[in-house]
Amino acid sequence: MTRYVMSIDLRRCVGCQTCTAACKGANATPPGIQWRRVLDIETGEFPDVRRTFLPVACMHCANPPCEAVCPTRATTKRADGLVAIDYDLCIGCANCVMACPYDARSIVHESHFAYGDTPMASEAKRFDPDRIGVSMKCTFCVDRIDLAAITGQVPGVDPEVTPACVNSCISGAMQFGDIEDPQSSVSRLLKETQHYRMHEELGTEPGVYYIWDQS
Amino acid sequence: MSMEAAQPKSVKHVPTLCYNCVSGPDFMCVKVVDGVATEIEPNFAAADIHPAKGKVCVKAYGLVQKTYNPNRILTPMKRTNPKKGRNEDPGFVPISWDEALDLVAGKLNAVRAKGLVDEAGLPRVAVSLGHGGTPSNYMGTFPAFLAAWGPVDFSFGSGQGVKCVHSEHLYGEFWHRGFTVASDTPNARYVISVGANVDVTGGPCAVIRHADARVRGYKRVQVEPSLTATGACSAEWVPIRPKTDPAFLFALIHVLVRENGLAKLDIPFLRDRTASPYLVAPDGLYLRDPQSGKPLVWDEVTATAVPHDTVGARPAVAGSYRIAQAVVVDADNERREYSDVEGKTAFEMLSQHIDKYTPEWAETICDVKAETIRRIANEYLEAASIGETIVIDGQTLPLRPVAITLGKSVNNGWGAFECCWARTVMAALVGALENPGGLVGTTVRLNKSRDNRHLSVKPGEDGFMVQYFNPTTKEEWQSAPSTRNLHQTLVPIVGHNGAWSQALGPTQLAWMFQGERPDDWSMPMPTLPDVWLVYRSNPSISFWDTKHLAEVAARFPFMACVAYTVDETNYMADVLLPEATDLESTQMIRMGGTKYMEQFWDYKGVVLRQKAVEPQGEARDFTWITTELAKRTGLLDPYFGAINKGVSGVSPLKGKDYDFSLDPASEPGSEQIWDAVCRAATLTLSEGREEHDLEWFREHGFYAVPMSRLEWYLTPTMEKLGLRYELPYQERLLRTGRELGRRLHEQKMNWWDEQLSEYTALPEWHDVPGRWIRNLENSGAKIEDFPFWLLTTKSMQYHAGGNAAIEVMHEVAQNLRGHAGVIMNAKTAAGLGIAEGDRVEVRSHIGATYGKASLMQGIRPDTLVIMGQFDHWATPFAKTIGAPSLNTIAPMSLDLTDATGSGADIVRVGVRKVEGVAA
Amino acid sequence: MKNPILRAANLAAPKQQRNWDWRAASNFIAGGAGGGLLLLTLLAVSLAGFAPEVTRSAILLGLMLIGGGLTCVWFEIGRPWRALNVYRHFSTSWMTREAVVALVLFSFGALALLTLHPVFVVVSGILGLGFLYSQARILAANKGIPAWRHPRSIALMVATGLAEGGGFLACVVAISSAALAAPALLALIALIAIRVWFWKAYLGGMVADGAPDGALRVLSGLDSRFVVLGHVLPALAVTAALAGMPGRAGLVFAAGIMVVASGWFLKYTLVRRAAFTQGLALSRLPVRGRGPAGAATKPGWKAVPGTKTG
To answer: Is the reported ipTM for this assembly greater than 0.90?
Structure first.
């Protein structure tokens, strides 16, 4: 079995939003829609303050609440752990948007572009009408994962088949790979470190691991 | 435009680079689908040679939008409204390239006819270039045109010289050939980062180095009034009172020198690599050998004073000694003789000088607890692990894994000299200066050779490396300035090494003196240049007192701007020239070696920025524009001569075993020029083994050869040459200041006297923040109306400023606190009735700026911070985002100008909530 | 519509959901009441018997409420013309179940309306309950909204649906000037009591188990008004009617309206104003080079249940 997961080393992240911007480029999301972003969280009171940068996106849960509520089976968990949306089946009921405890999903009802109603050449080239009125979210760059099955490349090792955010990260905070493979970089890193998954108490079994210290 | 979702016919990944900020160049690829750039991607082909593994930062991901932004200027334009000003619509109308180039060339030819220098002795052509030298990586062969032209005034800065890390540039190069200075992060264990915002401005190379160091377990202490992203990623935050950093650093020295003492410091380093043993006379000058004139040291072997370079001597680092016969050399070479005089070692002078600067004293200045300062100093000393070594490429070197880095506004303006001195002394005390793990310079800009700082180190006076100060002797001092910022006249240390020295002069003086001049001004009246060329620069946003600056800019008689969109500076232009932008044009540049901010490579080489997509509209590659200008001004011969010499490329086009020289008569096009550059560069780098043409580079992107990591550290070179760092005592600066003072006073100029006070052998604390308060009071304002310090900080999304018009940068930046707003302490805000997101007015004594309140705990209660540089009123998109700017309300003032000619981004302000859109 | 850019300071904290507006809320508001009304009609018909026109009115009203709610939600979904995908790509979601129940319910409801045959009335009533229950489960299945996912929300949603059904039935009966039997009035008081009991249980559970501050603020703000206007006053009115105060029909009608209106206000509040998202949280703040890791943080929540320390 394969389960693709992502690890995010919070010790490394500087909040630069390179992954946010890379994702927007790779997935051609419209203005205001971010399939992933890095949050800037402040805790404490002056002068004992901490600021933490927290990258968030779809957690590709093993027990995805979005899948359970989908009335059309548009959202499905794949055998490799990815939670996918079939844009042709989705009716845009938004139930999954609210089932997700990670704010990962969104629906765009009308097309709009960076500089108004007219798309730039780069936007026109990639505009996908199928994504209007349906639920969208991070796909773990599913096209790349699917390409790996054809080329024999390894997601998380070969950039062509690794999610854009992971590729772009300049602090080396993100790793991607098969957690069922004990030799994958993500498995090895998780062995060496202390980590948690967000909102684990909700039983979602997320596929994103946040590293906060060495073990 | 039709919407397409069809299957693409062609997909290419074009290797190129990003150099939008000083921390570049970094590698990337442009994904091009059917001729349209759609995505920016890392270039993993460069992962093994690039310290940042072939990646670019967030800014580069805006380049696709930059290319297709509908607000671009896409044809040459000329102004139709002869009146200029913020309230005058320029009435730009499209014209042909021929007309535009003829217009500009016509003005240039008129200048050549009149003479390149005007009646005041100032160049008739001025050129302003943007952020930190980065424009030269985009302007193709324009440097060759400038070289062919002759005298050009770079005085009208857009921030460089005053808003850069100015004192670090000048003193960093002076002390250890570090135009900028960094920690040797891969080996560091303890870094005190005083306002340095390296995780925001250091580029991908710095970010990965520090991330690796964090995971390895180094400790970084961030000393800064607000908790920046860099502070957030540090182990400790020390919220110091603004502009009191010298006091904090002095106290660190105190703890090392007075509380720990010499025995715990790196005695061999101090003795052999610094001037610590040099004996100082009671008058503050070095005691010198009467015969040779060389500074004396006390030899512990023979118990006599001997010249510093006496073979076999063991100089005493501390103590005071009776010297039988010696001389001192004062300003203007005045010699005085001494007999039976007491000489204290320079270290002894330091030790006595620093005695009063205790942590308890510093606490009262900095608002940082004495125990915190003492603990940090002791942690630093312990982490320095004096005695430890490391083997690099087979050579054993000291390992001193500690550094103090300084940030903008700490290392420029008043107090910056003191900070630069103190942190360099802190490095020297533990032997961490230019040794592995320690404090290292990145590159040189005021000295040559620009691509190898080791080659810039040559023996000079008194056992130190050679320096090229602007002369202050009676005979040679430049009493009539040759540039409008008076860099050779007023700032000896900035030197006269071409454009870099000029650009690092007091550029605010060039702007200020177009308005008022001091009463005792006795030099020729500054003139406006006949022709002003502006490239990748928007001083009307990025300088201070921007309203006034725009008014000055409106008075320039002829202004041609290479324009991306309309902006606040080119709003006053007579001609706009649309340039092919980052993804549309071609240029080869150097990469690798060591370079700011933390580019320390194991390779060096060249990288091609190439045309990934066809230019939009009528936009043209800058090399084409330049060649056309050269042709129309009759300068083709010297222009190609300069290109052949390597001015615009990376190496001369003619070498020992190759000759790709271009013949001006054949009017070589851009392709031919860069093809020759590619071939010459690869042959030079490979020492004749490999030759690659432009086509090869289009496919491969870059070419690199290995480089030893030993090149990161200067101390082995200093050791090889038997040279000492000019630390801790600043006898040369003392003398230079005295000489400069004499020259100015001979001209009856007293308006630079305050600045002369900075020329000291050992810096004193001089109430640095008080200078801003006094300036406020002198302007007639009441201090109680302006109870806060306003500072600025950079944003990675916007750093270098050229992308304020890019929508996606605005969008992603909003994920971070403080963008588009005024950061203030939550408790302070509550006291003023200000809530998160409220519109507030921030007012200084010269004006007001408006934005939304962004409340944080991570900022001092007495401090406000405005991120980036905004307040746009002409730039499309940027003018709609409603972000404030410190620049609008920070004054330019002689009071606030330090001896290097620099200032700092700080101003006293008041803040209040306003309803709706305020005037 | 441009997607609004949220301020950085608010991004991690729970925020009111923006995906289901009044249209989706209407489905819960009207549909739940309709389901409750159909069930109570069944019970009333079985236990007491109604005049045919009263039964017809009640069933018609119930079906209209459900139909109206579904129409509203149809206008909300992103791809309304694909709505039938719910039947084509059958899943086990509660939204699917709601849709299936609705389909069958309309068939049986129509037959009941036409024939008043007890079987159809009974099946419609049971399906009404099924519809109501499905709706409660739809909300509860949304793990992203703490105010919905609380297990006690199911009972509350069912209880209010039934109370609203009772309120509607009381109104129908009051208008039709049919006999207002004491047992029926006592049953209405019971429905009111049951709802307030489940409301208090729900609210107590939310406070005890933790919820976004915003949600708690909204729900706590609702409490006294909801209890007084939705329970105390209607119960008093019904009691007065029972005690023989003049204007009995008017009292009962007023009570019915209050029960319905308060229930609708509750559901609107629950679906819109109290529907704060989970928000994002950190179980640990990372070690930044050296020093200790920071404690957990959950912006917008007072307590941090379910996180370990040490």
So the answer is: yes
